[in-house]
Amino acid sequence: MSPTSRFTLLKKSTKPFHETASQTIEYPFLKKDNTLFWCSVSGTPLDDADLTKGIIWTLQDITDRKTAEKAMIVAKEQAEEANIAKSRFLANMSHEIRTPMNAILGLSQLMLNSDLTPKEQDYLNKITSSSKMLLGIINDILDYSKIEANKLELELKHVNLEDILSQLRILFNQSAVTQGVELYFYLHNDVPSIIIGDELRLDQVLSNLLSNALKFTHEGTVTLDISLKEKRQKNALIEFSLKDTGIGLSAEEKGKIFKPFSQADTSTTRKYGGTGLGLVISQKLLQAMGGELQIDSTKGEGSTFRFELEVEVVSWEPEHPLIRQQAYRTLIVDDQEISQIILKDILDGFGCTTDVASSADEALSMILKADSEEISYDVVIMDWNMPEMDGKEAIKQIRRMEEEGLIRTKFPSILMVSAHSIEEIQLDDIDIEAFLTKPVTSSTLFDALSIAKNGIHQMVKHKEQHTIPDLSGINVLLVEDNELNQEVASIMLQKAGIDVKVAQDGREAVRIFLSDPDYFDLILMDLQMPIMSGYEATASIRQYNTHIPIIALTAAAMIEDKEKALTAGMDDHLSKPIDMDELYAIIIKWSERENFPSDETPPYYSTFSTSVLDKHYILNLVNGKEELLHKLLSKFLSQLENEFSTLTLLLSDNDPTAQSLIHTLKGVSGNLGAKNLFEQCSFLNSQLKEGKSADTEEIRRLKGAMEEVKIVLRDLLSSPSDLSSPAKKMDSDELQTKFQTLRHDLKNGNIVQLETEQSFVESIRGLVDSQSLADWSEAIDDFDYEKALTIMSEWNL
Predict the structure, then answer these.
(1) Which residue from 353, 355, 431, 423 is spatially nearest to 392, judged by alpha carbons?
(2) What angle do CA 573, 579, 581 make, to 5 degrees?
(3) If we measure between CA atoms, which residue out of 421, 312, 324, 379 comes closest to residue 679?
(4) The three-state (H, E, C) secondary structure of 356-382, written as one string
(5) Is the pLDDT of residue 229 over 90?
(6) What is the pLDDT of residue 607?
(7) Rounded to whole angstroms, what are the CA distances from 542 to 503, 510, 536, 553, 587?
(8) Among 1, 109, 354, 608, which residue is least crowded by beta carbons within 10 Å?
(9) DSSP β-bridge partners for residue 478
(10) CA 436 to CA 458: how far, in whole Å?
(11) For residue range 88-137, what is the model confidence (pLDDT) as tens digits?
(12) Which stretch of DSSP H or E encloses residue 322?
C-alpha cells in the first residue's frame, strides 16, 4: 500500500472510532503490477481511548463481489433500455400492421354495400369480423408490456354477451367442424343481456380457452357455458365455464400451466405447439377484472376451466322480443343431451312451446300425434348425425307422410343443425328452410326462425347493410400521407355526400386550411406523417382557428396516443382501420355541434338508425295515433332543448343537481325508444349513484347521443308523413284482393308479416269501426287467427 493510500485509509477509518469500537469500509487498492482490487477493511483499536497504541487491521478481498455488482448495474440499465426499445418496437409494428389492415377493413365495408350474392356477403362479413379480431390481438400485444409492469388499463363499456358469442362462433366454428368436434355455446336465459366490462379482454380470455380446448380435444364436445351465479341489485355474478372431452391434465401438469413459457407438452416433438403464454396472460387479465381462472382436469377424460366475474348490469332484458302467446310450437330432434338443453333454453327464451325428441323415430311419432290432436308443430329443428336414422332420412320420412296424407293440419318448417359442414352433408336431395352450423346461438336461431315459412315474422330484427346518411353540404379536409388510406377514407366520405379535399402531410394541410378557413366544417388528421406531423399541424391551425373540429385519424391506438391527441388540441379520436358507422357518427356529432343552428333541420337524417330513435316502437306505443305521437315527440324535443340543455355542463361541474336530471332523462328516453341515449343515461346514472364523477369522454358521448335524438326529432316533426308512413289507398278491386289474400293466409295458418298488416290497416282505416280494427291488429299480433277471421267476417268492405 502506498503512503498516500495508507494516509487516506487512516483518515476514513479513524474518524468513526470515536463512536464505535470497530469499523468496516470498502476501499480500492493497487497491486505491485498496478492491478486494481477491492478490499473490505476492518479496523479494531487496541485501546479505544488512545488510538496511538495501535489498530488491528483486517483486509478481505471483495473484488469478485464488486465486479458482480457492477455487472448487475450494467445489466439493469441494459434491460431498461431494452424495455424501452421493445415498447417502441411494439408501437411501430402496431402502426405498420394497422396500415394494411385499414385497407382490408375499409374496402370490405365498402364492398358490403355493393350488390353481392348471399355467399359473398357471408365471406365478407367473416373477413370483417376476423380482421377486427386480429386488430384486437394487435392491441393485446401493445398491452402485454403493461401486464408485465402491472399497468394494464381496462376499457369499460357496454358489452353484449351475445355479440361476443357471435364473434367466437365465426372464429372457431370451422376449426371444430374440421376436427369433428361438436362445439356448443350455452348462454343461460337469466344472464343479463348487456353488462359493463372490457369486451376485448373478455373476448381474448374466452378465445384463448376455446383455442386450447379445441387444440387438445380430438373427439367429443367442447362446451362454453355462461350462467348467472348470483343477482346483486344492479350487479351480477356471472360464471364462465369451458368444458372439453380432450386429453386432460395430470396433477403435475396442472401445477405448471400457469407458469410463463411452460406447457403440459414439453417433448421435443412439440405436437401441440404454442408459446406457453396464453393461460398466463388470461390469468393476469382475469385478475385485473376481479376474477381468477380455475381448473378441474383428469388425465384422459378432459378439462374444465372456469372463472367468475362480478359486473354491473345495464339491461336484464333479453335481446329478442318474447312471443306474447305460447302458440308457436317447436320440436327439437337431437341425440345429444347438451344440444337439447341449449336449444330448448333458447326457444323458451323466445316464448315458444318446445318439445324434445332424442331420435328420429321418436320425432316422427310426435309429429303424427301432434297433427292428429290439431296442435301441429310450426318448426322442427333436426340434427343430422344421429344413430339408427340420421336427420336427412328423417326429413324424407316427414315429406312422405305429408304426400301420403298422414299430416293433415300443417306441414312444419324444417331447420337442420349440425357440427358438420353443409358440403359434407350434401343437402341437394332434401328440402329444408335453413341450415345452422353448431354452435347455435340465440341470434342465429332467431334469424333462421324469422325467414322460415312458418317463421316468427312479426319479431324479425332485420340485419341491414350500413345505413349511409345524407351528409351533403359538409366539407372535410382529410390529412393522410398513405395513398390507399386516402382512397378508402375518401370513398366512405363521398358515399355520404361529403365534399373532401386531401392533404398529403401536415404542412400541406395547414396551407390548404388557411387558404379558405371558412370553407371547412371538420378536419380528419393523421398523426404520423412526414414533413410535418399531425400534432404540429394541429398546433399551427389552432394559432388561427380554435373552433374547427379536428379529429385524430390514426393507426396509433394506445390510450396514451388518444390522450396526447386531445392534449395537442384535437377534439376527438378515431382509430384505424376506419369503421364506417363510427366515421359517420363522429362527423354527425361534431359537424352538428358547430355548423347546424338549432332552428334548422339538417338534411342528412331522412333515414335513421333505430338505436337513435325507434319509430316503429313509438308508433306501436301510441297505437298509431298521430296526434298523440306528435305531442309526445314535440314534448321530448322541447325538454331536450330546455330543461336538459344544461345537463352536460352540470356534469362537467360535478353539480349535484345533475343526478336527478340524468335519472329523469333515462326514464324519458327509455320510454320513447331512444336506445343509445337511454344506455348512456343508464351508465352515467349508475356512476353518479356510486358517488363517482362523470369523465370527459362519457359526457361527450351523452352530448352526442342527445344531439342525434334532437336531429331525428326535428326531421320527423318537420315531415308529418314520416310519423305515420300511410300506405297508398287501394281501389275497390285492390282492397278485395288484399282482403281475400289475408283471409286465405289466416285460414291456412300462414304468418302475416308486419308490413302487410300495417299496410292493410292503413288502407281500410275509416272504412271499418276503429275499435274493431284495433282488435283485429291485436289478434294478428297475438297469433289468434281464429279471432282475426271472426272480426273480418263482420266487416262490410
Answers:
(1) 431
(2) 95
(3) 312
(4) EECCHHHHHHHHHHHHHCCCCCCEEEE
(5) yes
(6) 34
(7) 17, 10, 10, 17, 19
(8) 1
(9) 502, 524
(10) 21
(11) 676 666 666 766 777 787 778 778 777 777 778 778 877 877 777 677 66
(12) none
Q: What is the largest CA-CA distance in the chain?
A: 135
* Rounded Cα–Cα distance for residues 792 and 308 (Å): 55
The cell numbers describing 372, all together, are 292428429
Q: Which residues are paired to 323 by β-bridges?
A: none
CA quadruple 698, 702, 708, 709: dihedral sign: positive
Cell 469500537 found at: 21
Contact call for residues 690 and 607 (beta carbons, < 8 A): no
Q: Are 525 and 553 in contact (CB under 8 A)?
A: yes
Distance (Å, rounded) from C-alpha 459 to C-alpha 325? 13
End-to-end CA distance of the chain: 125
State the DSSP string of 595-634: H--TTS--TT-SS--TTT--HHHHHHHTTT-HHHHHHHHH
Q: Residue 765: is it exposed, middle or buried by C-beta count within 10 angstroms (0-12/13-18/19+)?
A: middle
The sign of the dihedral angle between the CA atoms of 197, 437, 229, 235 is positive
Element (H, E) at 674: none
Q: Specify whether the backbone of 439 is left (phi greater than 0), alpha (psi in -120 to 50) or beta.
A: beta
**For residue 397, which of 424, 361, 366, 422 has the smallest C-alpha distance?**
361
CA distance 548 to 509: 13
- Which amino acid, 210? L
Which three cell numbers, joined as nine digits, stand for 475?
366539407
Q: What is the rounded average pLDDT for all residues in the chain?
A: 78
DSSP state of 433: S
Cβ burial 703-725 (10 Å sphere, 16+ → b, else e): bbbbbbbbbbbbbbbeeeeebbe
Half-sphere exposure of 5 (CA within 13 A, CB side): 12
* Cell triple for 764: 281500410
